[in-house]
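Researcher: Let's continue the batch. This sequence belongs to Succinate-semialdehyde dehydrogenase [NADP(+)] GabD, and it's 488 residues. Same format as the previous ones, please.
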Amino acid sequence: MSERDEACVLQAVEKRLFIDGKWVDAADGRTFDIADPATGETLCSVANATVVDGQAALDAAVAAQPDFAAMPPRQRADVLMQSFHLLHERIDDLALLMTLEMGKPLAEARGEIAYAAEFFRHFAEEAVRIDGGYQTAPHGGARFLVTRQPVGPCLLITPWNFPMAMGTRKLGPAIAAGCTSVIKPAPQTPLSMLALMGILSEAGLPAGAVNCITVTDAGPVMEPLIRSGLARKLSFTGSTTVGRQLLKQCAEKILRTSLELGGNAPFIVFSDADLDEAVEGAVAAKMRNMGQACTAANRIYVQSSVIDEFGRRLAERMAALPVGRGTQPGVAVGPLIDAAALRKVQMLVADAVERGAAVLTGGEAVDGGGYFYPPTVLTNVSPDAALCEQEIFGPVASLIAFETEADVIAAANDTEYGLVSYVFTNDLRRALRVAEALETGMVGLNQGVVSNPSAPFGGVKQSGLGREGGAVGIDEFLETKYIGIAMP
Ligand code: NAP
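Model: Same format as before. Here are the structure tokens for Succinate-semialdehyde dehydrogenase [NADP(+)] GabD:
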């Protein structure tokens, strides 16, 4: 990509707040800078919303709610389907924009735009299939009519690691169900969401149905909206720490709450697995987004008889991945999001090594501008190393040996998180036994990627509440109403 292409996509994106179908500056005119994580340099600045702007966005969503709920489902579906097509038409520019603000390689950014668009197609198809029921009461003297209605205005908060897909995963079902919303992307990566606002508007979304505010410090702007009682739902994707805080705020007005939080995925390789498949699965589960994914393989448990061979093959594969600015051709590993993320990864690796881990490849930050860390494989990792407890959020594979099925299930479940786990084995009964015993909302069997817009994504334990995607994804945005009819 040339510097001219980069300048063009940056110039084309709106950098103001999107409220009631219009682009507006922040009430106090302030802005904040967006940096390129590959260089640390400023790309552009966007409006920094105030409390007043947040309130205006929620007021617009509240005002638009009755008409949006009454809009025929087919028309809401058409907006989503048209947006799906526009996302694909503009995939090159949108991918470049995402790479610039977030750092992931262009091929991955393109993959994320296609994945994000798929949520719109999936929920366009769901919008026209919202069901109800009609039933005779057991005593015969009444009928039960059951219908489903939009929950009402929603607050949607998303993280920086999947700047487009985490937004469409919430907006798709909200629009399909007839809920209006205020969406707040992460301050590191607001540009993709601002670009999406333009697309939704062009696709015919009515004014006020989706509003977008960008802000550096979300707490003071979002808390009054959560506590106002005007919104009926919060859907949050981000860390467990912040999710817990928001759940407390939601308690006051009993908001419907969906939380997609952190993970600490175990990735289990039994000695009977196809080792090449398991290595490819581990690279996919570890390296997507440079390891900055809630679904990233955090603890890789390998049966002791094959751990040396698995470690050798994985290290060879990881060491061959080209590191660089995501806009460069052939790059497979971009920078981490910021200096704090880089420091955390360095600290976790140093701690593991101090506790006896051996470095098979990587292990030292890359010199130069930007926040680069090389693909790293550690083996002989002690279970009490900090990286077994916390999300690494970086390209570091940590290998731990195990002996028996019972041992590895106990170790895998020994965490407060429960988002996803991965199991590699060619023994069908063992695969199902272990999948059933793992305390996670999702399991990848002989595969390193589980995310699919048509499957229910979500966690148990402290990884979250509710599901996004799949047939149940729209339920999070619908209330069930029962109408009792006397039929004497
Ligand atoms: P984060 O610090 O929790 O922030 C997530 C979002 O919440 C950002 O937009 C952030 O904006 C906002 N936020 C933070 N404090 C807030 C507050 N008091 N009130 C309202 N909003 C607030 O997480 P992150 O570092 O961006 O993302 C990484 C985390 O997300 C990881 O833990 C990862 O596992 C998780 N994640 C989970 C899933 C899933 O589906 N389960 C998917 C992707 C990521 P500000 O920074 O401006 O405060």
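Researcher: Any comment?
Model: The CA atoms of residues 116 and 165 lie 4 Å apart.
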